[in-house]
Amino acid sequence: MSTTAHPSSSHTGPRVLADDASDRELVAHVHPTDWQNPEPAGRYNLVVLGAGTAGLVTAAGAAGLGAKVALIESQLMGGDCLNVGCVPSKCLIRSSRVAGDVAAAAELGFPAAASGRPDFAAVMERLRRIRARIAHHDSARRFRDELGVDVFLGAARFASADTVEVGGRTLRFKRAVIATGARAVAPSIPGLADAGYLTNESVFTLTTLPRRLAVIGAGPIGCELAQAFARLGSEVSLLHDSAHVLNREDADAAEIVQEAFVREGIRLVLGATIERVAAGPDGDKRLSYAAADGHRGEVVVDEILVGAGRAPNVEGLGLEHVGVAWDMQRGVHVDDHLRTTNPRIFAAGDVCMAHKFTHAADFAARIVIQNALFFGRKKLSALTMPWCTYTDPEIAHVGLYEHEATERGIEVTTFTVPMRDVDRALADGEEDGFVKIHVRRGSDEILGGTIVARHAGEMIGELALAIVGKVGLGRLASVIHPYPTQAEAIRKAGDAYNRTRLTPTVKRLFRTFLRLTR
User: Fold this and answer.
1) Contact in structure between 134 and 87 (CB atoms under 8 Å)
2) Taking a C-beta distance cutoff of 8 angstroms, is the pair 340, 346 a contact?
3) How far apart (Å, rounded) are the C-alpha atoms in residues 258 and 43?
4) In the chain, what are the domain boundaries?
5) CA torsion, points 74, 79, 84, 89, in degrees to nearest 10?
């Protein structure tokens, strides 16, 4: 059946998931009911609060180097990524892509396939099954038995300058790491809480497809799930307060995704303010909105999914006892070395960072290990951070946007290769998109790039490697890509740069040389 949840700011125990064999297997890995917390060691090199990506990587890496580590988690180990984020959402998106391909199958010569309809219950059962398989990597027993970490399940609280309390036990530390993550929060819309809504923390418990679904917020989470549910058969309305979706991205990139949404039948309500939500007489939910042009309207749905808003998990940690500064917008305050206002305590991941990505938390944890245990001076700002929004097509980015370069007084030259100019994209029927690369004007130094393509997330790594390795765009033209592949668009951008070096003077010299040597 469909479930509607009101996410709570209270984090006193593990979230309740769907009660089936797969989720029972999941919980057995990441919050086993028979778990016995160990007797604390005399003093830990590192006590880590939170077993999401940042906490897990910190604990595993530090223990692997010989540190005595305690890892504390009040809910499900694996954090949002495993349980209610990356893993389940990408399983859902994979199924929805099959549905999208089936809908477009007639263009590829399979008209009969277009009549197939997704089995939503089977889609969600697969999601839970895959999540349970992956859960072993983040399991309490693996961290205890294979990695040598003392795992404590329960709510943690700083009790003094060098102690943390959990489950009636006191853990002494030399250094501590706050990695408690963030949670979904809903906007303050009158009537929303009373009507009921879903977030990423509850949407994956659904077993029945909502016939009509409103998604609030057209950021990455809202866009990914809006398209996925539309492809799986929901009538989706996507409401957003800006003029176009994914407003963090370049307008030309977001426009391609927006046009795909329109083609696929998603109703876009843009530049709109939701004024109130009311429960209808038949159990439906009615969202009243006002558009920027003064137009007012109403969206009637069966379920509402809130895809915008995150709050750091900082309450109840006793941060006031240890002099750690925080607020509900930024979370825990850290410097560029990920050190809090208490030099003995560090933080990493969504609880303190602007980039709320699993891979960002992973690499932040590596910085914390070096800086906390070995007096390192590694900087968060030194990381080259790519990201991807997994719509279809995907939008991936790394480095500077052109407007950011302009704001910093850096002149750039931009090279753009449309995917329609790439043979493999044409063969795949995936020609919407482009590769766009910014170089410092007068050189081939890559400053940033955006890729819009069905597999943009798989392609962006080449640009990230080029930036980290200081490989210029001209050099990328000499990298042989298998033909035909969509990543060949990156080489084509390199070719476009090299053609700019063939100035009229150089051409004239070449012609003269070749004439004389005929």
Assistant:
1) yes
2) yes
3) 54
4) 32-77+140-184+311-382, 88-127, 192-309, 393-504
5) -170
> What is the distance between the alpha carbons of residues 99 and 5, in angstroms, rounded to a whole number?
27
Q: Which contiguous run of DSSP H or E holds residue 261?
A: helix 251-263
Q: Is 3 a residue whose pLDDT tops 50? A: no
Instruction: Name the CATH superfamily for 393-504.
Output: FAD/NAD-linked reductase, C-terminal dimerisation domain (3.30.390.30)
Q: What is the mean pLDDT of residues 5-32?
A: 69
Distance CA 351, CA 48 (A): 13
What mean pLDDT is reported for the chain? Answer: 94
CATH architecture, range 32-77+140-184+311-382: 3-Layer(bba) Sandwich (3.50)
Mean pLDDT of 402-410: 97
User: In terms of DSSP bridges, do strands 434-440 and 446-453 run parallel, antiparallel, or are they unpaired?
Assistant: antiparallel
Are 65 and 372 a contacting pair, CB within 8 Å?
no
At residue 111 the predicted structure's pLDDT band, cuts being 50, 70 and 90, is confident
Q: Are 308 and 187 in contact (CB under 8 A)?
A: yes
Question: Average pLDDT of 465-469?
Answer: 98
What average pLDDT does this structure show over 153-177? Answer: 97
For 337-390, what is the HEC assignment?
Answer: CCECCCCCEEECCCCCCCCCCHHHHHHHHHHHHHHHHCCCCCCHHHCCCCEEEC
State pTM to two decimals.
Answer: 0.94
Note whether 245 and 393 are within 8 A (CB): no
Is the CB of residue 171 less than 8 Å from the CB of residue 154? no
Residue scoring higher pLDDT (293 or 377): 377
C-alpha to C-alpha distance for 119 and 358, rounded to whole angstroms: 30
* CATH architecture of structural domain 192-309: 3-Layer(bba) Sandwich (3.50)
> What is the pLDDT confidence band of residue 17, given thresholds at 50, 70 and 90?
low
